[in-house]
């Protein structure tokens, strides 16, 4: 079978405090199963998956960053040129929720002011131990212009949807002209050369059109 040509490559980040389940979310999205023996990420881990979004084939290149403070300087260097991010907190830990503002500031300052971010309240399966209400988090998301979902890396609930929702928003912004994949640091690349050429003939044609001196 011939491999489908990839239309776009998007660089994604998974950010948030230690212990929120970032690596488990990534593992669930890529492997479709729960990662049992998850230790704290040291520095940065990487995963990728090709998805179909709005009829386009998109390869998501996902950097899973360490949440521990001592790795902050290492992980910050990976923010540059990210098109999208999952900002993760643990619904059973008020502390991880309270630190969201710092993570958000980092992402918007270091990655790009236009980075598309989806807030993920992870560990939805532990609803009985909840410390952060859905309403409170959804208000925070609204105030900061974020999309919002509650996820469970354990059951897989909303995990795929979180990544796809983020990718779909980026794609819509490319199609509406709000995001330019040609711009340095956009976190977006054309996957297939033929697509690049699709954009060129129009401007080339405009240049070669004979001038009318009537």
UniProtKB/TrEMBL annotation:
Q: What is this protein called?
A: Ras-related protein Rab-4
Biological process annotations from GO:
protein transport; Rab protein signal transduction
As given in the record, the signal peptide range reads 1-19
Instruction: Quote the SUPFAM superfamilies the UniProt record gives.
Output: P-loop containing nucleoside triphosphate hydrolases
Native source species: Scleropages formosus
Q: Does the keyword Protein transport apply?
A: yes
The gene it comes from is RAB4B
Q: Where in the cell is it found?
A: Cell membrane; Early endosome membrane
Q: How does the UniProt record describe the way this protein sits in the membrane? A: Lipid-anchor
Q: Which GO terms describe its molecular function?
A: G protein activity; GTP binding; metal ion binding
